[in-house]
């Protein structure tokens, strides 16, 4: 395959004593390396990366960090409610998103839905929804639904919907269609054929995916509060700007505890499913 | 009664799957369809329940023109025809009983299908069907824990639960060892005689076909080259069925 | 014969107890969770907002969409990409030694478990906290964004790279040793090639995520397309919002496509 690179840096031919020869294309590495270095240099300029500032004021970071690591647990009582709010939003959002994702992923599966146009439109919609960061969705939601936990839940639901749908339709397309064919042969509609023949295959993966989405959501949901979409984010941001780092520490550690519990439970359930 | 009148199937790329088929099969017959791979055996069988559409001619089952069926009428039509597949096509994770109950799905209200809640009568029907094929005791075992022959029997029970008038079997014993294959063929014969269900088997194992079926249809190159009692099939007839004709080569190309 | 069948029916497995328990559990969980969600109704201006956004998407502000100035969408996209790019690279550099410290086949058990806790700790800090902390050092702007992205990438990169290290095929090392290689040569020719393409693959995976995260960093003032987006949203300048959103979506889709292609090439070899 001849391309521009080969013209600039011609391949080397090695000829052995017995007349056999082999051609080796010139390594692309130097060009790739150079390109990456140039990109790094440009990015450093673009972002005004300044090492001297880091050196001069870097210790500030560790001062703050040290205070965060000395949490003041008397503050904990103010943290419970917002923290639970974040968790509750994640659960409801993940549930709503997941429930809608299952039928939608069937529509997006080319082995069940034969209408190519519908499939392409739906997949495009999913792609666009996936590119929007949850925070942007949350902002839009707060404008439409007012500040508060509902907006955050909507944002989480939409994000989970797009994530679970994608993972599910990719999985459905790899499934064995034998039993589905048998259902069609005995006179079932496509939906009923899917429910009877494919759901048993799909269920473990679906539940596992939903649990995984709850895990990832709880982590990123903490930021939603910062824009007023409910949860711990608001309190966290507040404490930071007031420089109450000991309280920030409290929140972080309680968040850590919550995330740890949720991840452990989720991992246990997912193991049982497979 | 199944009736083919000058039926042909031409694929988009020009190959002729079936050529001018004229055939009548009465209720209660046990017919074996034999021939080379790609000769059209599978095509012939699958046109009957319209898994494959015909291009020309008329195909009627009990008076209904198959190509006129659409959507709901097609589904209702298919409920009366059972199909057995080479790879069994069971839901491997489900129990044997639940697999047989799948036959009841088209008739149930949607919510029952969604939740998997079958009526007591349905469950009894399923168990009866399992009993007819002799594996009642495995009713609550997971399907993938059975041997090949047992799984095919479950598939057979599933079709019996439909109360079909016709059973189509596409290479039902190709994946089974000789002993299991003989057992399953025996099941087909028994069901055919006891329930008077028309059975049409697509089979490449000639001895089994000759031993168990009443009538043999030999297909070569999409055409019927022999149609008669299995007892009268001679070596010359078999040679004719399995001959490598010019047209055959075009079909299998 | 009827009897035999009826007896079999009685033997059917009784799932309803577990099903009921699970159902009650789910309803309880949802009920508790749902109590926190207050539906304050659609804001009085809600529908107007939604329409505004849709309108902005259909009629984007083409001036900023195509302008090449600092306020233009292309520049903002480049800035966001630069933040994500540098953040990923620095994050990988920091994560590399940490990954080795976390890999089960390389470090002693206590170190492994300590590292797991450390990584979990790093990952629990929401990235906007890092953002606010770094802004204290560098002031608002893209520089803070780079530092934030670096630190928030470390967690995932360490975990994934540790898995790569744990999956190293020791057979290669064995055959190199049998051919007479020194320790250093074994690392250079036996281990590095195995790690290289997977590390890069993980880097690209994280870059995609960082791209999306970098766009929202602007929220806290750490540069990128996020800041003007928030600003315009709060000022209800829908046309500008439309342009920015379009720019964002195009950027992410484009780079996701490119990254997938690169990752496939990495897996198959150049």
Outline the structure in words:
The complex is a heterotrimer of chains A (274), B (253) and C (270). Chain A has 274 residues and is an all-alpha fold. Helix content of chain A is 73%, strand content 3%. In chain A, helix 3 (51-68) crosses helix 11 (245-273). The two termini of chain A are 45 Å apart. Chain B has helices at residues 41-48, 71-79, 96-101, 110-115, 120-132, 148-160, 178-195, 206-212, 235-241, 246-252, and strands at residues 2-10, 16-25, 30-35, 56-61, 64-65, 81-84, 166-170, 198-202, 215-220, 223-229. Chain B is an alpha/beta fold and 253 residues long. Chain B has a domain at 1-80 and 197-253: P-loop containing nucleotide triphosphate hydrolases (Rossmann fold), CATH 3.40.50. Chain C has a single domain (60-268), classed as MetI-like (MetI-like fold), CATH 1.10.3720.10. Chain C is mainly α and 270 residues long. The interface between A and C is large, with 63 and 67 residues.
Short description:
The complex is a heterotrimer of chains A (274), B (253) and C (270). By secondary structure, chain B is α/β, with parallel strands linked by helices.
Draw up the topology in text.
The complex is a heterotrimer of chains A (274), B (253) and C (270).
Chain A: H1 4-8, E1 12-15, E2 21-24, H2 29-46, H3 51-68, H4 80-107, H5 116-131, H6 134-145, H7 149-172, H8 178-185, H9 190-221, H10 233-241, H11 245-273
Antiparallel strand pairs in A: 1-2
Chain B: E1 2-10, E2 16-25, E3 30-35, H1 41-48, E4 56-61, E5 64-65, H2 71-79, E6 81-84, H3 96-101, H4 110-115, H5 120-132, H6 148-160, E7 166-170, H7 178-195, E8 198-202, H8 206-212, E9 215-220, E10 223-229, H9 235-241, H10 246-252
Parallel strand pairs in B: 3-8, 3-9, 6-7, 7-8
Antiparallel strand pairs in B: 1-2, 1-4, 4-5, 9-10
Helix pairs in contact in B: 5-6, 6-7
Chain C: H1 2-10, H2 16-34, H3 46-58, H4 62-66, H5 73-102, H6 109-124, H7 127-138, H8 142-166, H9 170-178, H10 183-217, H11 226-234, H12 238-268
Helix pairs in contact in C: 3-12, 5-8, 5-10, 6-8, 7-8, 8-10, 9-10, 10-12, 11-12
């Amino acid at each position: 395959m001849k391309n521009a690179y080969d013209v600039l840096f011609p391949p080397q031919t090695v000829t052995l004593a017995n007349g056999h020869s082999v051609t080796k294309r010139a390594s692309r590495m130097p060009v790739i390396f150079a390109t990456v270095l140039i990109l790094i240099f440009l990015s450093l300029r673009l972002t005004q990366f300044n090492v001297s500032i880091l050196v001069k004021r870097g210790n500030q970071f560790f001062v703050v960090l040290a205070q965060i690591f000395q949490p003041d647990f008397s503050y904990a009582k103010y943290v419970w409610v917002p923290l639970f709010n974040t968790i509750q939003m994640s659960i409801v959002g993940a549930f709503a998103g997941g429930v809608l994702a299952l039928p939608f992923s069937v529509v997006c599966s080319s082995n069940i839905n034969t209408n190519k146009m519908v499939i392409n439109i739906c997949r495009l919609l999913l792609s666009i929804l996936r590119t929007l960061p949850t925070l942007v969705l949350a902002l839009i939601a707060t404008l439409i639904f007012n500040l508060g936990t509902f907006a955050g839940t909507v944002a989480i639901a939409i994000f989970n919907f797009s994530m679970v749908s994608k993972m599910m339709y990719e999985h459905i397309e790899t499934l064995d269609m034998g039993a589905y064919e048998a259902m069609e042969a005995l006179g079932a509609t496509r939906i009923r054929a899917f429910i009877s023949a494919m759901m048993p295959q799909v269920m473990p993966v679906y539940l596992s995916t939903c649990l995984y989405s709850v895990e990832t959501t709880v982590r990123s949901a903490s930021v939603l509060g910062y824009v007023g979409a409910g949860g711990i984010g608001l309190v966290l941001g507040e404490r930071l700007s007031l420089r109450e780092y000991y309280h920030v520490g409290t929140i972080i550690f309680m968040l850590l505890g919550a995330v740890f519990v949720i991840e452990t439970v989720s991992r246990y359930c997912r193991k049982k499913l497979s | 009664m199944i009736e083919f009148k000058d039926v042909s199937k031409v694929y988009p790329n020009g190959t002729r799957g079936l050529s001018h088929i004229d055939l009548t099969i009465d209720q209660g017959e046990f017919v074996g369809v034999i021939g080379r791979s790609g000769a059209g055996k599978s095509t012939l069988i699958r046109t009957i329940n319209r898994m494959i559409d015909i291009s020309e001619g008329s195909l009627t089952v009990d008076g209904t023109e198959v190509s006129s069926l659409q959507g709901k009428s097609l589904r209702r039509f298919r409920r009366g025809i059972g199909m057995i597949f080479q790879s069994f096509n069971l839901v491997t994770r489900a129990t044997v009983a639940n697999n047989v109950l799948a036959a009841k799905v088209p008739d149930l209200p949607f919510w029952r299908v969604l939740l998997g809640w079958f009526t007591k009568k349905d469950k009894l029907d399923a168990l009866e069907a399992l009993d007819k094929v002799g594996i009642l005791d495995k009713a609550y075992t997971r399907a993938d824990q059975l041997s090949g022959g047992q799984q095919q029997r479950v598939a057979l029970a599933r079709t019996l639960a439909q109360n079909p008038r016709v059973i189509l079997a596409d290479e039902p014993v190709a994946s089974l060892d000789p002993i299991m294959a003989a057992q399953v063929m025996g099941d087909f014969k028994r069901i055919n005689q006891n329930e008077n269900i028309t059975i049409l088997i697509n089979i490449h194992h000639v001895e089994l076909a000759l031993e168990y079926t009443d009538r043999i249809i030999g297909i070569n190159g999409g055409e019927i080259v022999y149609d008669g009692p299995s007892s009268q099939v001679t070596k010359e007839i078999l040679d004719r069925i399995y001959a490598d004709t010019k047209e055959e080569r075009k079909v299998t190309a | 014969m009827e009897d035999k069948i009826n007896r079999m029916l009685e033997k059917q497995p009784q799932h309803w107890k577990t099903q009921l328990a699970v159902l009650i559990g789910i309803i309880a969980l949802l009920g508790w969770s749902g109590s926190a969600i207050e539906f304050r109704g659609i804001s009085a201006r809600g529908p107007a907002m939604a329409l505004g956004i849709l309108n902005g998407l259909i009629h984007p502000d083409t001036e900023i969409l195509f302008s090449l100035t600092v306020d233009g969408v292309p520049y903002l996209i480049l800035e966001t990409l630069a933040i994500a790019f540098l953040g990923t690279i620095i994050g990988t550099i920091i994560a590399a030694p940490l990954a080795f410290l976390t890999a089960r086949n390389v470090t002693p058990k206590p170190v492994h478990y300590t590292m797991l806790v450390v990584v979990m700790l790093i990952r629990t800090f929401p990235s906007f906290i890092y953002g606010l902390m770094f802004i204290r050092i560098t002031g608002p702007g893209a520089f803070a964004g780079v530092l934030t992205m670096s630190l928030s990438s470390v967690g995932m990169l360490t975990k994934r790279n540790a898995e790569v290290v744990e999956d190293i095929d020791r057979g290669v090392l064995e055959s190199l040793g049998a051919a007479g290689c020194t320790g250093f040569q074994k690392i250079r020719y036996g281990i590095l090639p195995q790690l290289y393409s997977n590390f890069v693959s993980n880097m690209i995976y994280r870059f995609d995520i960082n791209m999306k995260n970098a766009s929202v960093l602007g929220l806290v003032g750490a540069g990128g397309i996020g800041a003007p987006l928030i600003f315009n949203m709060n000022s209800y300048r829908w046309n500008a919002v439309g342009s920015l959103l379009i720019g964002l979506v195009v950027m992410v889709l484009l780079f996701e496509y490119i990254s997938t292609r690169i990752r496939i090439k990495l897996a198959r070899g150049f």
